[in-house]
Specification:
The protein is mostly helical. It has helices at residues 53-58, 73-83, 100-117, 119-122, 142-177, 186-193, 197-211, 218-228, 230-245, 251-279, 281-308, 351-355, 374-390, and strands at 31-32, 39-40, 45-46, 51-52, 126-129, 133-136.
Length: 398
């Protein structure tokens, strides 16, 4: 039976100055409950459902769509999934007993999503790239690829269950420890009905970067990263709402009840990721190869953009000689002397005259040749003159 004061249009009034809470006389009242007219403090007031905690406990909770026998099977599934988008207004439905049907819904939704979330990061024969491109590593057979994908899906289920347990166990324990007129099954029920949001977060975190094109702006990348964490934010919101409305925890206690399990899950996740890479070192090598490929692609794009944005008529940079100091002025290279051996070090002017013997200089030691005739002497005398006249003149220094 509906409450006669259950009017969503009825305005919410503020209590007179100095009024105290009806349930906690030591706390100041902040609002007048539109259902019963009692003064409620911050811990007793539930704004999303416009009710104080006393009225919320007295009223029977609405059914979860999955537990509604008047709906069809698909309507129950999609209705429960749809309610996850409204964590505050759907929180009172978890104030009821029983977790059997919630566990069945958990198995139908959590396990498939967790298996899918493990395929991309934990396969070793398939390398996934931007635009959902897939590169096969080596030349494996089809059976080997199928076994690799199946093993990656099992790893995803194992890691998903481990992180869900690291989040759920301390959450249930803290919710019951801080509970004030709450239902003991409410924390467990919300983690079973909303647990699928955790592998959904892992899946979107993996797939969203692959859906981006090769060239995306910084704003686009940031926007898609924010969209990827929406499932996890919905899960945290549902945990906090059920802690407040289902267990009756205060506003400050709800922060601790959700924050501590979240920190524990992060630490467990880091250890799990390290353990998986130690057990399957191929994953680390594949991630390193993917990282290097992304760096090469980024370098290539930067080089292409730099060459495309270069203005025409710019002076090309002077090539640097190997071993030279960058920015040093290159020295003038002396011109090669005709007839000189390539690679020979040029000598200083006048050095050739000192080292090269004169044509008329006598050869050391007694001569064993007979004396030449006059004709022969003339030819020998004129030969150096003709060679000197026919040799090309050296370039003069201006």
């Amino acid at each position: 039976m509906a409450d006669e004061n259950d009017d969503p249009e009825r305005p919410i009034e503020s209590p007179p100055e100095g009024s105290m809470c009806s349930e906690h006389p030591e706390r100041p009242a902040v609002v007048v409950c539109p259902r019963c007219g009692a003064y409620a403090c911050l811990s007793c007031w539930h704004g999303p459902v416009r009710s104080c905690h006393a009225c919320l406990v007295r009223r029977p909770p609405p059914p979860v769509p999955w537990e509604d026998p008047s709906r069809g099977w698909l309507a129950r599934v999609f209705g429960t999934l749809h309610d996850a988008a409204a964590p505050n207004t759907s929180a009172p439905a978890f104030r009821s007993a029983g977790t059997e049907r919630a566990a069945l819904f958990f198995a139908l939704t959590f396990v498939p999503l967790a298996a899918l979330s493990g395929i991309v990061p934990y396969t070793v024969l398939l390398l996934f790239g931007p635009g959902f491109s897939v590169t096969v590593q080596g030349t494996p057979m089809t059976e080997e690829i199928a076994l690799d994908v199946f093993g990656a899906a099992l790893i995803g289920v194992f890691i998903g269950l481990a992180e869900w347990a690291a989040l759920t166990i301390p959450f249930i324990s803290l919710s019951r420890a801080f509970a004030n007129d709450g239902h003991p099954d409410a924390p467990a029920r919300v983690m079973l009905y909303r647990g699928w949001l955790l592998p959904a977060f892992f899946l979107t975190e993996t797939l969203v970067p692959l859906a981006l094109p090769e060239r995306v702006s910084l704003g686009g990348a940031l926007l898609t990263s924010l969209l990827a964490i929406i499932p996890f934010l919905l899960l945290l919101g549902a945990m906090r709402a059920v802690t407040r409305m289902g267990s009756g925890v205060s506003a400050f206690g709800a922060i601790l009840t959700v924050g501590v399990p979240f920190a524990i899950m992060i630490v467990v996740g880091l250890f799990l990721a390290r353990g998986v890479r130690l057990a399957r070192p191929q994953i680390a090598r594949l991630e390193e190869a993917q990282r290097l490929e992304l760096e090469r692609e980024a370098t290539r794009r930067s080089r292409d953009e730099a060459s495309a944005s270069g203005a025409p008529g710019t002076t090309p940079s002077t090539p640097t000689t190997p071993g030279a100091t960058p920015g040093a002025t290159p020295e003038a290279t002396p011109e090669a002397t005709p007839g000189a051996t390539p690679g020979a070090t040029p000598s200083a002017p006048g050095a050739e005259a000192e080292t090269e013997p004169s044509p008329s200089a006598p050869t050391s030691g007694p001569s064993r040749e007979p004396p030449a005739s006059e004709g022969t002497s003339a030819e020998a005398t004129s030969a150096p003159s003709e060679a000197a006249s026919s040799a090309p003149s050296s370039p003069q220094t201006p």
